[in-house]
Amino acid sequence: MLLNKRILVGICGGIASYKAIELVSQLQQAGALVDVIMTEHAEDFVRPLTFSTMSHRPVYTDLWEPSGEAAETHIALAEEADLLAIVPATANTIARLAYGIADNMLTTVALATRAPLLLAPAMYKDMFTHPATQANLNLLRERGAYIVEPEVGRLASGAVGPGRLPDTETLLGAIRVALGRHGDLAGRRVIVTAGGTQEPIDPVRYIGNRSSGKMGYTLATEARDRGAHVILVSGPVALSAPYGVELHRVDTAIEMRDAVHRLVVDADVLIMSAAVADFRPAQAAAQKIKKSGSEVEGHDNEGGFSIHLVRNPDILGELAERFNDPNGRGSARQRLIRVGFAAETEKLIAYAQTKLVQKHLDLLIANDVSRPDSGFGTDTNKVLIFHTNGTMEDLPVMPKTDVAAAIWDRIVPLLHTT
User: Fold this and answer.
1) Which end of the chain is more exposed for a tag (fewer CB within 10 A), N or C?
2) 72: which residues sit within 8 A by CB, 6+ positions away?
3) What residues have CB less than 8 Å from 326, skipping those under 6 apart?
4) What's the CATH architecture for 189-415?
5) What are phi and psi of 199, to 5 degrees?
């Protein structure tokens, strides 16, 4: 996504400018060609040498330097840029951009470029909420600028309110969103489920599985980077929501089923990568079950305890009926691409082929979770991709980011054949 992208990072004169050092470093490490443009007062907070060291490229500051080279360079920077990200964006620079004032290197490049503009405002809370600043931001937003809303928190002044520059991970996510606006999933609405479900035994215990949610979250992030509106339905996981993704948290299989059925209306793609529990306790105890509580149903005379399990709903099976019924809503008005996952420990190919057919899926992604390089919680995966025409692709062990890209590469053509 960022490899070989030419990204201009504008640095304005604010205390938050030091946070942009890590951003420039991360962009450079991701393979982007990063050119930094600093305003005069930005140099009062961070020296140009710092950014030059992080970007491995010259830093541009003075449009009016005597040689005249900067006046020529600013045109080249503007024409070659894939994105102009101003981090932090001060109230002063926002006002200049809104009214087309070009009186320094940064604002001149901003006026000359046709690349997408991303602004990350950071300032004192009352400056940010002032009607003039909000009007300027709205004006720039109407022109197509992407605004990264500041966080609410403690500011450099000691006051608490909106105006904090978001962390680097959020800024990187926003940059990816801005770059992917016209990607091959632009205008598409996709739903990804992720993580496992937790089926309560009592208020303390539950039946669950080892799913970390990493594959699902990576699939959601990849779709976001390709321009999709992404809805992530997530079971309990220890992962942060990707920036720019609409997150719906659930705990149980029934909650996930209800969320998917509610959200799938007008969706183009559903990827069920969540490890949904097949069974749940027939009835959860209202209070914590005690070891010595022989009076509680389920205890036996030997100190053991049994739980009666009932089958959970088959989400993909229900959707197969809904979207393949000739009299149903889906077949007449909507073609939903459905992708399933099969996490197995034996007979991987046989089980995957059966699931693909029974659930009327467009693709089935299968992996052997007993392998150390593709089990739960790993950062790599080894998958087989099954197609409706009977073909099977055996992909090598890859990082989950590459697996996610490969899966979406196979989904995109399906969207153009429906």
Assistant:
1) C
2) none
3) none
4) 3-Layer(aba) Sandwich (3.40)
5) -100, 110
Any alpha helices (H) in 272-394, and if so which ranges? 315-324, 329-333, 348-358
Tell me the C-alpha distance between 408 and 410, whole Å. 5
Distances (CA, A) of 401 to 222, 338, 411: 8, 20, 16
- Domain-wise residue ranges, the chain: 6-179, 189-415
- Residue 153, H or E segment: strand 151-154
Same fold, 6-179 and 189-415: yes
Give residue-wise pLDDT tens across range 92-146: 999 999 999 999 999 999 999 999 999 999 999 999 999 999 999 999 999 999 9
Cα three-residue angle 298-304-307, rounded to 5 degrees: 35
pLDDT above 50 for 194: yes
Catalytic residue numbers, as ranges: 209
Q: What are the distances in angstroms from CA 219 to CA 317, 389, 402, 408, 410?
A: 22, 24, 10, 8, 13
For 16-62, the pLDDT digits (tens) are 999 999 999 999 999 999 999 999 999 999 999 999 999 999 999 98
pLDDT at residue number 291: 76
| CA distances (Å), origin 11, targets 68, 197, 203, 366 | 22, 44, 51, 46
Is the domain 6-179 a CATH 3.40.50.1950 member? yes
Whole-angstrom CA distances from 119 to 16, 104, 163, 170, 215 are 13, 17, 13, 13, 30
Cα separation, 321 vs 318, in Å, equals 5
Q: What whole-number distance in Å separates Cα of residue 239 and Cα of residue 402?
A: 19
Q: What is the mean pLDDT of the chain?
A: 91
Rounded-to-integer distance, Cα 290 and Cα 205, Å: 11
Cβ atoms of residues 137 and 124 within 8 Å: no
Q: DSSP character for 17? A: G
The count of residues in the chain is 418
Residues 350, 373: contact at Cβ < 8 Å?
Answer: no
DSSP 360: T
